[in-house]
Write a structure and sequence with these properties.
Number of helices: 10
Number of domains: 2
Strand content: 15-25%
Largest sheet: 7 strands, mixed
CATH architecture of the largest domain: Alpha-Beta Complex
CATH class of the largest domain: Alpha Beta
Order of helices and strands: EEEHEHEEEHHHEHEHHEHEHEE
Number of strands: 13
Shape: globular
CATH superfamily of the largest domain: PurM-like C-terminal domain
C-alpha cells in the first residue's frame, strides 16, 4: 500500500520508509540523531498491569534494536469507556509507567479515544550518535546470529485467550515479554554488532529474512538451538496458532528452506508472531563468543541460533 506513496527525502534522514527497519532515525547534528518509533496492540494477557508492562517494553524495544537510548514516551490509548471498568485502564497505564520508570524514560503525554476494543501502546523517542546506528542489514559471511529471548509468545497468547494455558506457562511468558532489551542492547553495542533487529510480529524467521533480503549473504538457522518458552511446544502441537503465524509463513516461505528433520510444530514456532521478543544480533565469531559470555553474566539467556554465509544468497536454510 505504501509503494505508490511519494516519500519525502532529506539528507539528514538516516532511516526512513525506504525499507523495513525497526525505527526511524533523523540526524540533528554531527553527533546526535533522533530515533522515533510507535507500537500498540490489543491485550494479550488478562492482567491489565502486566499488559501495560508488556506493551511498554515492546515499544521501547525498537530503540534498543537500533542501539539507542530511549528518552521520552507518549501513551496511545483506545478504551471502551462506557462498557469497561476504568480501573482496567488505570492498571494498564500504571504497568506502562512502571516499565518506563525502570527504563529511565519520561512519560510526557499521550492521546486517548473511546473505542469498542481496548488497545494500548506508546510512541517513543530516543537518541544515538549518527555513526553508531545499528541497521538490520550489514551482516557478513561467517557472522554468528544471537537471539536474546526465547520464542513462543504468539502460540501461548492464543492458548491464554482460549483458557488453555497454565499459570506457570503464562507466568514465564509474561516475565519474558516484560523484560527490557536495554541491557542486551548495551552489551550488543559494546561488542560491535554488524547488524541487529528485534523479534516481534513477523516472527523469528520474518525478522531474520529482513536481515538478508536483497543482500549477498544467506543464513543458516539451527532450529534445535532456538530457545523456546516453557509450554510453547505443547500448545503449538495442540494447534494454538495465531492468525499472524499463517500470514508470516505465506509472506516469507519463498525465502525459507526447511530440512526434512525439522518438525512441523517447530516450523510453526519459527514463524510465530512475537510480542516484545528479544534482539537478533549479528556479529563476528570472536565478538559473538564475548557477547555470549557478557549476556550470561548479565542473566540473559541468549543463544547462538545460526550463522551467515556467502552461499544461498538471500535465503534462509533451517536445519
Amino acid at each position: 500500500m505504501l509503494a505508490s506513496l511519494p516519500l519525502i527525502s532529506d539528507p539528514n534522514l538516516i532511516i526512513g520508509l525506504e525499507r523495513a527497519e525497526d525505527a526511524g532515525v533523523y540526524r540533528l547534528s554531527s553527533e546526535l540523531a533522533l530515533i522515533q518509533t510507535v507500537d500498540f496492540f490489543t491485550p494479550i494477557v488478562d492482567d491489565p498491569y502486566q499488559f501495560g508492562q508488556i506493551a511498554a517494553a515492546n515499544a521501547l524495544s525498537d530503540v534498543y534494536a537500533k542501539g539507542g537510548k530511549p528518552l521520552t514516551a507518549l501513551n496511545i490509548v483506545c478504551f471502551p469507556i462506557k462498557t469497561l471498568d476504568r480501573a482496567v485502564l488505570k492498571e494498564t497505564l500504571r504497568g506502562g509507567l512502571d516499565k518506563l520508570r525502570e527504563a529511565g524514560v519520561l512519560l510526557i503525554g499521550g492521546h486517548s479515544i473511546d473505542d469498542p476494543e481496548m488497545k494500548y501502546g506508546l510512541s517513543v523517542t530516543g537518541v544515538i550518535h549518527p555513526e553508531k546506528v545499528v541497521f538490520n542489514q550489514g551482516a557478513k559471511p561467517g557472522d554468528r546470529l544471537i537471539l536474546t529471548k526465547a520464542i513462543g509468545t504468539g502460540v501461548i497468547a492464543t492458548a491464554i485467550k482460549r483458557g488453555a494455558a497454565s499459570d506457570e506457562v503464562i507466568g514465564e511468558a509474561v516475565k519474558s515479554m516484560a523484560m527490557l532489551n536495554r541491557r542486551a542492547s548495551e552489551l550488543m553495542m559494546a561488542a560491535g554488532a554488524s547488524a541487529a533487529t528485534d523479534v516481534t510480529g513477523f516472527g523469528l524467521l520474518g525478522h531474520a529474512a529482513e536481515m538478508i533480503e536483497n543482500t549477498d549473504v544467506g543464513l543458516v538457522i539451527h532450529s534445535r538451538e532456538v530457545p523456546l518458552l516453557p509450554g510453547a511446544v505443547e500448545v503449538a502441537k495442540e494447534g494454538f496458532a495465531p492468525g499472524g503465524l499463517g500470514r508470516n509463513r505465506d509472506y516469507r516461505q519463498h525465502m525459507v528452506d526447511f530440512a526434512k528433520s525439522v518438525p512441523e510444530y517447530l516450523q510453526d514456532l519459527l514463524f510465530d508472531p512475537q510480542t516484545s521478543g528479544g534482539l537478533l544480533i549479528a556479529l563476528a565469531p570472536e565478538r559473538a563468543a564475548k557477547l555470549m559470555k557478557d549476556l550470561k553474566n548479565a542473566g540473559i539467556k541468549a543463544a547462538v541460533v545460526g550463522e551467515f554465509t556467502s552461499n544461498n544468497k538471500g535465503k534462509i536454510s533451517v536445519v
